[in-house]
Amino acid sequence: MRLSRYFMPVLKETPGEAQVISHQLMLRAAMIRQTSAGIYAWLPLGKRVLANIEKVVRREQDRAGAIEVLMPTIQSADLWRQSGRYDAYGPEMLRITDRHDREMLFSPTAEELFTAIFQNGAKSYRDLPRNIYQIQWKFRDEVRPRFGVLRGREFLMKDAYSFDLDYDGAVHSYNRMFIAYMRTFAAMGLNAIPMQADTGPIGGDLSHEFIVLAPTGESDVFYHENWLKPRDTSGINADDRVGLAAFINGLNADYAATDEKRDLAAEAACGAALKQSKGIEVGQVFYFGDKYTAPMGVTVQGPDGAPVTPLMGSYGIGVSRLAGAIIEACHDDAGIVWPEAVAPFKLALINLRADDGACAAACDKLYADFTAAGIDVLYDDRDERGGAKFATADLIGLPWQVIVGPKGLAAGIVELKRRATGERIEVPIEAVVGRI
Ligand code: ATP
Ligand code: MG
Ligand code: MG
Ligand code: MG
């Protein structure tokens, strides 16, 4: 993409409305603009980040055997009456009336709809286990939308729903999502700690929240310092029920809990290794058995012909919140420092002298070569001073910068800068595409 033809209205000043660094940087880097309280337009750079986060989430869901669908955002109140949540949910639910006076709502989560769709399609025990998911916008009329996309009213969520015949199977489905979440967050450069959590309006008796430690987080969390080291999940086979359960039990042996689930005895056992801090909830997994299937009358025919009520779990990831959470974890004084997997482009190609024919020709050629090699490049071909180009490249945080100026070019050299470390090296121009 040539910056001269892109839509990236970066801001020089930090907008006064933004209190936390990720919100400030998302506005300054032209990723988002607020259109109403807690509702955001995603500009091109932000849209690319969101798509990359989705890509990682989708890859790990698919790898865990979950099946993607897409449900409507607007749902009927009747469906929510069947579970009893229409009245219970309270003012966070945005309620809508259509022209025929039918009560509708904008989905804040989707247990009821997934349960109904599953009931419609699954007839026998052979149709289980299944895990079905979507990546879809949700709306919650939060009392205090704030911190940009970290607490929006409209936000993008991955929500998955598992259906099993028995408790052991349901726990395995839960564990599969647990490990998929660890892999998802690690792939985005985050150390998200799974913590014992309260189940809130979703209900149920087994739950973990995945928390990214950050001073700007809204959750108070308590954990053993072992959690500060990222865990290696590469050797884990999620199809091995016993091995997976043993691995997760091993993880849970290190204490980690949100403030609603504190265990003072476990904390005392941690001794000096107990840590307390703030964190951002980027995902949550729940097991809640027949909380929805029983009141909604869902059964399948069991192997012996008798009806069985499926046991469910649900599993959420805050896809749009992650864009903010990653920035909270990955930034410096100059701007964002994107982990490779979610960066909007892999590199910035910076022409220091757009008015110099040789520089422009060399950059045009590099741009074509990078593109041919399948590398996403943002090419700063604007007629601007070098300093302004550097500042923009640092602000938007692409992992690499390739800097082309007349002096180096005369010697056949360009500069390669790694955004994360600031380290710059000189590379022969013909070797630079191969270096990335
Ligand atoms: P919170 O405690 O932050 O209000 P929640 O526990 O109400 O979140 P869940 O029902 O567990 O949220 O939804 C799954 C995921 O959706 C959360 O883990 C979070 O990442 C994301 N999420 C929830 N509410 C918001 C919001 N208002 N803005 C952005 N993301 C959100
Ligand atoms: Mg909430
Ligand atoms: Mg929560
Ligand atoms: Mg939650």
Automatic annotation (TrEMBL):
SUPFAM superfamilies given in the database record: Class II aaRS ABD-related, Class II aaRS and biotin synthetases
GO biological processes: prolyl-tRNA aminoacylation
Keyword Ligase attached: yes
EC number: 6.1.1.15
PROSITE patterns: AA_TRNA_LIGASE_II (PS50862)
Any single Pfam family the record assigns to this protein: HGTP_anticodon
Protein location: Cytoplasm
Superkingdom field: Bacteria
Domain Aminoacyl-transfer RNA synthetases class-II family profile: 38-339
Record key words, sorted: Aminoacyl-tRNA synthetase, ATP-binding, Cytoplasm, Ligase, Nucleotide-binding, Protein biosynthesis
Catalytic activity: tRNA(Pro) + L-proline + ATP = L-prolyl-tRNA(Pro) + AMP + diphosphate
GO MF terms held by the record: ATP binding; proline-tRNA ligase activity
Recorded GO CC terms: cytosol
Function: Catalyzes the attachment of proline to tRNA(Pro) in a two-step reaction: proline is first activated by ATP to form Pro-AMP and then transferred to the acceptor end of tRNA(Pro).
Family statement drawn from the similarity comment of this UniProt entry: Belongs to the class-II aminoacyl-tRNA synthetase family. ProS type 2 subfamily.
Entry protein name: Proline--tRNA ligase
Biological source species: Sandarakinorhabdus cyanobacteriorum
